[in-house]
Amino acid sequence: MEQKLTLQQKLLQKLSPQQIQVIKLLEIPAIQLEQRIKKELEENPVLDLESDFPENDEETENNESDEKSDVDNDEFSFDDYLTDDDEIPTYKTQTSNYSKDEKYVDIPFSVGISFHESLYDQLNMVHLSEDDHQLAKYIIGNIDDDGYLRRDIISISDDLAFNLNLEVPEKKLEEILHVIQQFDPPGIGARDLRECLLLQLNRKKGDSNELARIILTDFFEEFTRKHYEKIQKKLELPDEALKKGIGEVLKLNPKPGSAYSNPLNKSNQHIIPDFLLENVDDELSLSLNQQNTPELKINDTYMDMLHDLAKHNAKKTKDQKDALLFVKQKVDAARWFIDAIRQRNHTLLVTMSEIINFQKEYFKEGDETKLRPMILKDIAERTGLDISTISRVSNSKYIQTHFGIFPLKYFFSEGLQKDDGEEVSTREIKMILQECVDNEDKRKPLTDEKLTQILKEKSYNIARRTVAKYREQLDIPVARLRKKL
Q1: Contacting residues for 220 by C-beta, under 8 A, at least 6 apart
Q2: Model pLDDT for residues 442-482, shown as the tens digit of each residue
């Protein structure tokens, strides 16, 4: 086989580690940037703070830490990293501040009784045989957090036969399920919405509840589709009676298990704005929110160590070379990180400034109708940055204005041309749709066709399918589901 050497030229695009670091820092919001800086400070001893984090503002602690750092700097020497021995004793590289007998266990925080624990507690107060008690526990375990038993009795019976080798008749499981359905909150253990609502009505009394029970039993499909005129015609009811009966149904809880959802268990999003915009004497002033972002610097002690070692022209030992390489790598990493933070802040300010200039009329008054159509490409062209960079800047970032806190993505929207040639934002059309729906006659809600006609009368010439898309984006149901008595 003949061998040949060939020379081939290729053009490749590769990202340096510094570029990757800047990209990652651009993506994170202010609340995560603080944690990212703290992590870098822990990993890189060369990186230091110009000043402490804002939460460490007690003067006594600062003075003590400053004094301690001065002592450490005086006593610290590069020779501490060097040793004449080939092997470093293990006691110099290991620390143990705790006894072997000490045990540390994370104690979970309890915020109260859960939904299923409540059901098990109620089960313990019911007189059942040991076998029936175990079957009831198995059924409760199949009830979801909303309070529904999503699995049918046949499947549960099969599971008991295959997994626990128990032959349990379906009738027996139905009897035990009926016992569980008497527990609180009313409606738990239901297999569908109709059964859930009927279980709640069975615990109430009154004429209106009786009418509500008839509606759910005989006219459930008409009720869900809001065909109230069919129910009224078949039952020969006056308007007030029908309205009262349906009102009782609407008072019921379609998800009874949600009554046990503890608000302390829910994670609330804590928003810290990345930008601060002030309107002073009709002049907009933009700044970065750096309240929790300290200034960084390189530790002087490590820089002096690096310079001292570099001055020695004599042959260095292996330990000295390793120590020099370690310090140099950490110094370079610290410089890259500081430069990345500065580049991130510059990119954020440039991008947000152009967004404000593009939407200046809106930011001055906060009037949503003055939002101009704006896409990522518009800001990319004005800043000279790539569209992907603008996308990273606008993602998960917030700005605090004199009229509220908004995500940056809020200011981006597509444009639409009116009959007179004026280009408007789709957000303006959505506002008109929302206003039309809010002011409509709920007995005869506006269909998509009628909404399209209203928009055309206002010179917004758009198709019905586009109106339906905007309506869905506003979480507005179809006209039939918006109908009320």
Answers
A1: 194
A2: 878 888 888 888 888 888 888 888 888 888 888 888 887 78
